[in-house]
């Protein structure tokens, strides 16, 4: 029986989670190489949703240092040639069955009856010859912190810095954060803040993210997965590292259980995480490193 694109990508994600579980390192954690969201060399636009995780994961496994990708034909348009024997990565787009259009979203936000996932093969800049990446001035750590502070300060959430555990409290609609000074790095602070604000975005008065009908008893664990992905997408926008956290430990088994039983679950989680990241980004002027 032919394996669907959903099964192929889900199996890749499951294998990466299992491999990194001992160190709590998930496929969306980025602490080295290119930490921004991957971009297409021709359009300049960032990939979205699960495509981000897929390309990060492959770049990590292959040791690629570039976050730039394109199809074989697109590299040729840029005057570059994919080296013989290089293996492509798969990304997916949503094809509109009624209108014949495609959206490069990498998210499952459409009715299955109207849209279908279509896979494309892309290659990393490290796999081609004849391409010289433009020189982009690197931001200093202070500049990255300033951008992140401006980005998150624009979100109109009530954030209280107290205690020793970060969380979102739905009954009070409050985000509680551990004081900044207690984090080992600024990136760690903003990653956790992005996680909690992703939870905040799902409130009924905002994105109204209710997973109980879709995932039943596993809905809490899936919400944690969405928050993890949302934080990763936000860190990618801002060019911030996103390190593994031991807080993931209680959820890893549940994530694996859900993903192994439902090939579309990771697509749904990534869609909702992308929606949350977009929602939070909508409160500020563009500050992304994309």
UniProtKB/TrEMBL annotation:
InterPro entries: Antirestriction_ArdC (IPR017113), ArdC_N (IPR013610), MPTase-PolyVal (IPR041459). Residues 4-123 form the N-terminal domain. Residues 147-271 form the Polyvalent protein metallopeptidase domain. It holds the Pfam family ArdcN. It comes from the Bacteria. This is Antirestriction protein ArdC.
